[in-house]
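Researcher: Good morning. I'm working through a list of sequences from a screen, and I'd like to move beyond sequence-only analysis. For each chain I'm collecting a predicted structure so we can compare shapes side by side. This is the next one on the list. No need for commentary yet; just the structure.
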Amino acid sequence: MSSLSSRVLPRQNRVSDEQRRSWQQKTLLITLFLLPGFAMLFLFVIAPVGQAAYYSFYKWNGLGPLDNFIGFENYQRVLGHQVFRGAIVHNLIIMALSLLLQLPFAMFMALVLVRGNLRFQRFWRAIFFLPYVFSEPITAYIWLFVYHPQSGMVNTVFSEIIPGFESQAWLGNLSTVLPALFVVVTWKFFGLHMLLFMAGLQNINAEVEDAARIDGANGAQVLRFITLPLMLPTIQLSVFLSMLGSLQLFGIILLMTRGGPAYASELMVTYIYKFGLQRLNLGYGSAASVILFLIALLFSVGYQRTAMRVDNTQ
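Model: Good morning. Structure tokens for this chain:
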């Protein structure tokens, strides 16, 4: 019995040593592949956020040494500034409009293109997706012409349709500037969400929907109980992108209104640019940036731990 054990144990040790070396090689290979990504994440995300948090405790114009430590005073000033609080409200309004109007309309058009047997699907898909390809400066300048108070297309069309219509300064009116900007944002990003929904619809097995129709379900019931639940991961991704995108809007707003008139279209990122960079108050701007980062992180983590977690558990 002892001789048999002496023959078996070394072989088991050899196998375990080989497994250990194989595991070490795999670990090293995975580490080498992940290291560049983690380095980029640290250099361009983690380090800038930490640096901004560090600057936010100083009164600093970006040119001299950091020698005027003021603690949380910048945060108190930012949160106490009515313009910044208004910018948060404007971001939330655009987010709510995106979730309630933009995404349902994108879903509707995706259903029309995929399930409606519409002719020239590739043509319409390209037409709707084309604005997303345009850069934000091109988008802004296109819509500046569209909203022009005298010769803009919007005023021209309304003048032809509505008798006695007077031209409006859509971007210069306190009550119309934010809805007008939301139309621009929807025009630009609508195609992306429509394309995501189209991809989700095409991944659904048509036999499942056909089986529901055979069982007596009508079109609305198939959509509600079959199609939309199967598209839930795609819908959740689209909602997630829309929420974060609404918090990060900058270029279009800056080029079209610069946050005006009277801060009626001010958003958090434009606020940081104007009150931080333009006024050379980088400590103050860093505090506003950290607040924006925390708000975005709160939305991101909260959404992933609620909506996406519920889907994963199911």
